[in-house]
Amino acid sequence: MSEDLSSDENVTITSTVPVSINCSVYNPCGRNGYCLNTQEDEQICSCKFWWNGATCNEMSNGGKQVITLGILLAVLLAAFYGLGLFRRIRKKRNQPKQKQEPSIPIVRLKFPTVSVEVFDPSRRKYAWITGILTFIFAMSTLVVKWSILKPIHDEVVYKYENNQSVYFNTHSVCRIINFRADFNIFTFPIACLLILLFMIITKRASSRHNRYCKGYLGVVIPLDFFGHVKRTLAAVIFAVFADELLDIANELLTGGRESSNQGVIITYLTQIFRVFVIGFRRYPILAAVYMDNYFTLICGTLYAWLDFTVAIMSAGLCTNNFYQTKEQFNKTGSNRTAEMIAYYGTGSKLLFLQLFLDIPRYFCLSYICVKLPMVLIKRIRHRNIPDKQMRREQKDLLYSSLPHSAEARYVKKLFGYASTEPAKNRLSQILRRIYAWRDDFRFSSRVICVYASIFLLLFFLTVSISIRTLPILNKIHPYIQAFADLFAIFIISRDPVEADAKGAPPDFPVPDLAVPFLISIYVALLVIIIQLLFMLASIRRNLLQSYRGDHREIPPRVSTSNVSYSTGSFHFAGYLIGYVIIGYALILFVSTMLTMSIAALIIFTSVPSLERFLTLIIPPILFTTFKLYINKLLSQYVFLQHSGEVLSINNRRALMVFLYFNFFLDTFLGFFAAFFRILKSIIGGMFYMCRLDYSPLGRKLETMDAGFNAYCGLIYMETAHRHPVLLFFVSHLLRDHLYPTKRLSKAKHNWHLAIFLLNNPTLIYQRKDFLRNLHDHDTKMMLIGRRNMKKLSSEPLPTISQPKDVNSAKEYESLWREQRF
């Protein structure tokens, strides 16, 4: 019997057992070791963790030291937190009861606004009708999709059962609908025609170009990204883009569309053309809602129905997610459909999965097809409102001065006119801990559209990966096992005697991948969703901070970096989507490794590579944690006055002696701290990849992060164009100009202006007369459209007569209230 007891305790001890019985018959090593057969038909014991001996029944010195250090650390933690709890209880008991002072009554003034009802009963009625019709329409389209997919499913199942090439033949209409066999371009010419018609009836706002074509033939705006009018409809339209853009990204990454006669540049140009076509296909719908007149709404409604019909036919008869066409089969040469049928069976399971993947897309398209006629009906009902002389920008701006708008409520709270007390309802108090709803803030359409696209993209990505990956997990299992063995050999040192033994178990036995992979997918999805929701709250918090000039979380705005802020705002949506996808992939990889390790420990009860890794990592973790809490205990109760409540030194001499010896001790501890710093940075970078509001480079280097720059650009651009005080003030000026109640003389107007500027002296430097006299180049760069300022200032705004009766005023106010939805 040979026994190696002189080696270090962290190295696995291997001992030879003087028996000739095979390990499969008798295991003399017990639960603390592995029994292995050598080349000489001898049995050896490879001990786990800190065990040694011939049969691995003795605790090594290293094991005893680790247990001792763990017990001391537990006692230290109990003492530290126990003393803290004792101090809090004692402080609470000794705290004198303060008498409740009488509260000072706050005088709440009445806010001068038009007397209108805040809640419109018809709005809730329209919402219920829209929801019910959307559900009925979506379920009807799913039934139609089922009737289209059923013959295709039966065809591929018949070919699979007869050992034929599994694909389906597309319908003849696909040659008309699709371009290059898999790209829907049928509605593109119709969309271009509608955009041209909308441009013809659009009147330009600039007086410089109104002399051509009598002021018509203007650029059609699809959406005001800085506004918050019709946000739900815009978000649903942008959510539909997610699936089509995901297909383009997959083809770019896998090179599925590149052929031998087609270069890389042509491939990328083709994908860019596809992106433009996808954008043009939804452009008329957004433009019709933004222009908000009878003609555009009728054209948009008819076009939405046509596009939905073509989308159902294209997604059913021409292309499918899980059923290959003949063209796809000849192009790729792989029989993916046969693999899917072999795993999910020849029943209707694969058919149901295809319909489940189509549910969000069809509900979004159904909402668009239902919402547009409802908007048209609302527009017809309010045909007597005197708003024909106003542009859409003026209509949206007038909404900011209504009493129930977010801007008006923000100003009310600034002046103390609105109640800021939280709701006393118990359910509301619980929900406020999760997300505190504020009625004085609304996210812009851009933020809502980006989040809608991301959430639908995550749904498609998660479901598609789950369904497509499960059939091939059994095939890649041997390759993952081989990679795990190589990783264990090169990264985690393996005992050479054990490596030469016959029948040695693998260092990392890979379990069945199906359950760990599914758990990893949904863990990654949950982490990304939580991070996105936290980021949504950060956007609101940072915007409110920026409104009041608070720069604690984001750096202050510099006028010389306006171009950088503008370009960063351009990149916000694209960067966020890209960061989310990369973060999703990284978290999926890390969670897959963790779930595989946990599953291996549960199934096999012992994983040698993990045991070696824990043997290496547990001692420094225990030592570092022990040293950390020793420092905390000494700092709070020995070296600081009043148990750390005051940052003043106590026991100065003892502190100097401690700092002298701690200088040398922390030098060795710094090696472990540096390793943990790198590890924390990697893990934190993975989990915070989708958070543009946090830079992994730190506060001093955060400007080098393109994602954080894009986030700062969004905050600064939204603050400059959506500040609630600015919108409320300008809206009141516009309302007073359009609906004048009394006219002031020029002397009174100048007197009021002088008093206003005396109370707000900083606004003197922002007046047009002051800026016009400046010749500094930097000041010219800050002006927007300075060369047209004189002409725009001299152009009179349209004046609308004041409604004579109260009913027309209420009817006019209700229009702005409905535009928000």
TrEMBL record:
Keyword hit for Electron transport: no
Leader sequence residues: none
PROSITE patterns from the UniProt entry: EGF_1, EGF_3
Keywords of the record: Cell membrane, Disulfide bond, EGF-like domain, Membrane, Receptor, Transmembrane, Transmembrane helix, Transport
GO biological process terms, semicolon-separated: vitamin A import into cell
Pfam families linked to this entry: RBP_receptor
InterPro entries linked: EGF, STRA6-like
TM ranges: 66-86, 126-148, 183-201, 448-470, 513-539, 576-604, 613-630, 657-679
Domain of life: Eukaryota
Record has Transmembrane as a keyword: yes
Membrane topology: Multi-pass membrane protein
Residue ranges annotated for the EGF-like domain, each copy included: 19-57
Subcellular location: Cell membrane
Sample GO molecular function, one term: retinol transmembrane transporter activity
A Gene Ontology cellular-component term: plasma membrane
Disulfide bond positions: 47-56
Predominant cellular place of this UniProt entry's protein: membrane
Protein name: EGF-like domain-containing protein
Species name: Adineta ricciae (Rotifer)
